[in-house]
Request: fold
Amino acid sequence: MGRHKNIELLTYSEIESVSGFVGNFEITVRKKPRYIDEDACTGCGDCADVCPIDVINSFDLGLSTRKAAYRTSPQAVPNVFTIDKKGIAPCRDACPADQRAMGYVSLVAEGRYADAYWTIRRENPFPSVCGRVCNRACETACSRGEVDEPVNIMGIKRFVADWAYDHREELAEMEDKSLVGTSFQKNPEPTGKRVAVIGAGPAGLTAAQDLVHLGHSVKVFDALPKAGGMIRVGIPPHRLPYERLEWEVQQIVDEGVDLELNTWVDDIPGLLDDGYDSVLLATGAHKAYKINIPNADHPDNWLSLDFLKKACLGEELDLSDRKIIVLGGGDVAMDAARVAVRLGHPEVKVVCRGMRAAEHEIREAEEEDIEIIRGRVFQRIILEGDKIAGVECLKADVGKVIDGKRQFTKLPGTEHTIDGDLVIWALGQEPDTSFLPDDVDWIDEDSYEMKTNQEMMTAIKGVFSAGDLRVGATTFVVEAIDEGHHAARCIDRYLRGEKGIPEPPEMPVATLSADEIDRKMQNGTISDAERTSMGTIPPQERANNFREVQVGLTEEEARHEAERCLHCGLCAECLECVAACDREAINHNMLPTFEKFSVGTIILATGFQDFNPEVAPEYGYGALDNVFTAMEFERMINTMGPTNGEIRLKSGKKPESVAIIHCVGSRDQKYHEYCSRACCMYSLKISQLVRDYVGAEVHEIYRDIRSFGKGYEEFYNRTKAKGVHFYHGRVREVTQDNGRLKVSWDESYYDQPDHIEADMIILATGFEPQPDAPEVAKKFGISLGPNGFFREKHPKLAPVETSSEGIFLAGTCQFPKDIPDSVAQAEGAAAVALSMLDQGTIALSPSVAQVSANRCAGCGQCEASCPYDAVAIVDGVSNIDIYKCKGCGTCVASCPNKALTLIHYNDKQLIAEIRGALS
Amino acid sequence: MGTYEPKIIAFLCTWCSYTGADSAGTARLKSPWNVRAIRVPCSGRVSPELVLRAFDQGADGVIVLGCHIGECHYETGNHRAAKRIPILKSLLEFVGLEPDRLRLDWVSASEGERFANIVTQFTEDVRALGPIHWKEEDRESSDLSPTFDISLRSNGGEQPPEIPMDWEKATQEIRDTARTLLANQEVDCVIGYEVGPRGWTRPAFVHNPDDVDRLVWNPHCTHNLTRYLREKASGNGEEEKRVAVVVKPCDSKSLNVLLGNNKFTADQIHTIGMICPGIQEGAGFGNGDSATLQERCLHCGERIPLVYDTLIGDPQSVPDFEVSPRGDILESWSGLEPAQRMEFWLSQFDRCIRCYACRDACPVCDCSPCLYERDDSLWTGMNISLDQKRTFHLGRAYHLAGRCVGCNECVRVCPMDIPINLLNEKLNQEIQSAFDYHPGFNTLPSPLTTVLDQEN
Reply:
């Protein structure tokens, strides 16, 4: 049927709105993004094979799991896969570099470290760096933080980066999946365009790699002897072993980036003249500054970055007999202090207004005998002879950081001197713009940002700027990487015009409610362990050397940590499926699309919902093992189901006796008064199957057997003949006794037991209206009956029609029924709809409202009171749309002047009736 | 009276209670024969005027039965019944009809037993009340003056503060504004106040910028000028006109109601809003040199118009203040027996000479022709018998429910001094407590026309 040429089947779609009237309905359908191209997908399942995410399989009613890339069943129509994605995970959303944190965390949980590495590399060329030095925005956003503590995402990333470094030779042999799902290519067709990048820091190198992958030829210049920028000369080796950075830089060079170090470039326009089509300025913020206090110009006043640069580049420095004062409270101050300590273990004090450095840095610094003095304002440097003797400070009341500035009040009269003979200034840093031509106004005076347009281009055409230089302040590595990616896209668009790669679309973010988090934690697939943090080597082993202080997670720790992830987005967006799909059918950036259809008639066949027996505790469902609903049993006996068609208990054994309880949720004043009509017959069917398949004793506890259809009574008799036991009764409770389930009931006939014991219980659950039936009814302008099912126009004379002309009902959305009845009703609905379409004309009910325009004062009370928007004030008088009017007369009653009247129920007629009735 | 059998009209929704009555019959359940069914497509079809008509025609009780809320065949038709019928009931109760004579309830098609129970109980309740004595023919004496005292004035309470007002300056500002508007042809007409030849302040219609010096602002500007807007703004089929109008805060509320009722569009009207210190008693007739404010002004919480294009007067001069509502006058009625209330109101309605002055002065009452002035006598006859006057006043009161802003023009112009404003105030009080709706504070439709809150 899905392939009939006149049937267009819209799956994975929802009705957004319905307007118009019979013969002229306009329906807007929202097609949910499948993230897989229906036309390209062959249903092979390669995507599901590589998907790291397990999701409870609702098609198997929770009895099995499936992958986030899935199809509901092997018989699905259309037979294509869908990616179950709630949105991008909060961790990815929070990351400036757009790292797919949930993706690599999920892959690590599966032990797929190489895949995890490619997932990280996709957006980040410096995993080793970001696994060590990061502000961890992802962890702040992590939903696991609502339960206990966030997943140690950075620790996992470092583990993957370390694993990759240790296996770098094997990785080189593997397929590089880091470009999968991106616009980049290995060895792309050259565009013939040349780009010069000034600065080999994270922003410059990221942009260079992207541009090379887009086919441009790139040369990176840097004044320093080593590549890496601030990562290389600002992050000391006890935090980042440089061989790892060098390996990562080498990978970028291997991709075809031309790197020229030790080169100071100061003729930007000259580069353009030399044949470069574009220039990217990414020189960072390498200029530390002092504040203007007396004696700050003494030569023993060092600038933090200059000091760090020397140390990081391996210059021999001996500070063993110095007394060092580091001024400042940020990460750079801590780096300077901890580097100083390692150069001969001098006395080091860090003096600051307030501490802003990462907590573990402060802790580790204190372990290394660094004294931290908070709440001080520097007054002057004290000289004794030609040497520094100390820093005179004032105590200060330090408040919060507001707008990036720490609030403080100096306390007068608290002057005191902190002793020391060498001052290292680590108050902050700014970009060095001395290499830029003077004739351009580069910097915005208010924000210190470099003036660029939205495409990151500076005032000189073709010259772009990114990273700390553009922002005008020091930012984190991930932010610089993001700037680099963005700059590469801007330059590509500049070089290629419209064909350049666009900005990625904004995707919705998946957030978990407290309820959802609870449910996820309870369903057992997520580790409830506490967070594992990275440790450090002992202080005595590190004080005098540059060994890396932090110790990465072990493989076991990393996997356990990864299992704590709550999978907020469902799909992890690792793009493993994209790599696996030979048909290139997968696109993770799909958005919902809206399609409009004009139709003449509508048939609603939205079905029912199974009664959830958890709300009826007497049946023990959910609380006791081996109590199943009939639908669960149906999945169990399906050869494609969770047990491959075997009827078995939780223990794996076959049941020896099975009890089937009728009328669960139906014919029960507590739940639903109505009879669900299909349960008796399916219960009989289940009895026969159990008898045939496992030969167990079957007991049916029923209220009344309602076998009213053609051949049904005969089926009942056959079931009895198979030796199924029937007990008339109303089940009181299901309990567990000595490992066996016991069903007890009331109202049993004389001389009949009132309980039995069984291994397995199957609940014949009734039918309920779909939970969104009221919304659907509202959208289509139809009404609901007392039970919440859609109401037919007339129970006997118009059983498939609704109060809205042209909208028909089929199946259980109208009321519980079995398959033959559903099919019959559906065919009836189709026939009525067809005859309406075939006639091409529609006979409307004559009983509609009418307006006497000369009496209408246009007050609009009719318009406000019409349930169908059929009345509108046009040119000051009421106007009835007779196609929409259903003849309820509500407008007529609200008209103060009775300018409106309802044909067949007009006031004259009603008043005459009243008169007659009272005479 | 032992043989008294009440006559009961039941309006039955064809989709539920009508079938429910059928179910009752099929189930051989007994229902009283006193109940005479009128089939309607929906309880929302039952207009309060029909219910009044049924009482007029001699019904002793009226019951309206619809589908349960949420099950209406027409989605929300019954929501309207659920709002209208109780409001009508409170009006009838106020004029002395026992509340048990009108009932609204819900019966679904399958609830035959419920139908039988409800109508049986209702019949018994009405039987216990006996016939209604409000017809002219029922009354023995034609002297209908009440035999008890009833206060028509509120007992004061918290007085509003005095607002300083420079009448001369404001007059000049009105004239300047009017001159500019007319000279620039921004409006075709300015509706304001002038002092007539006998020294009475009266409405003025100025079309010419040279005439603006007729306009005045004084403590006798009592008329609600928005009443003239519809006529002046209508282009009579040609291009619609623009009108400027001088409004007091109370008038600005009726302007909102008129805008909500589509009488004209907001851009047709230039509103000259006046900071109002209150209008003096007796204004509109004679010089009104009484120093006391009109009662409505004593209970008016607004001194600045709710809408205006030009504001005249100093809004800074208006302090924050609260006034006691007029509820106490209605409360004083609650102690009365239904028979006493009916006696009072019949005595009042009986004095009515059916001159329609109240209707014509009302800014929002402008159907043409009025439902109660039709020659087909469908809704009421055209003579001045008590029955017809009663129907006119009750029907009109219901029509103004949710629309009356309490400007009291109706009482001011009534030559017989009938306190008909009390009917409107009673209904407004009901609407305020039921729907938290204050007519005139916005241009939203009356809550009687919209769906019930909990369903939204």
User: Anything to note?
Assistant: Residues 819-839 of chain A form the longest helix (21 residues). Chain A has 29 helices and 41 strands. Chain A touches chain B through 47 residues (CB under 8 Å). Chain A has a mean pLDDT of 92.
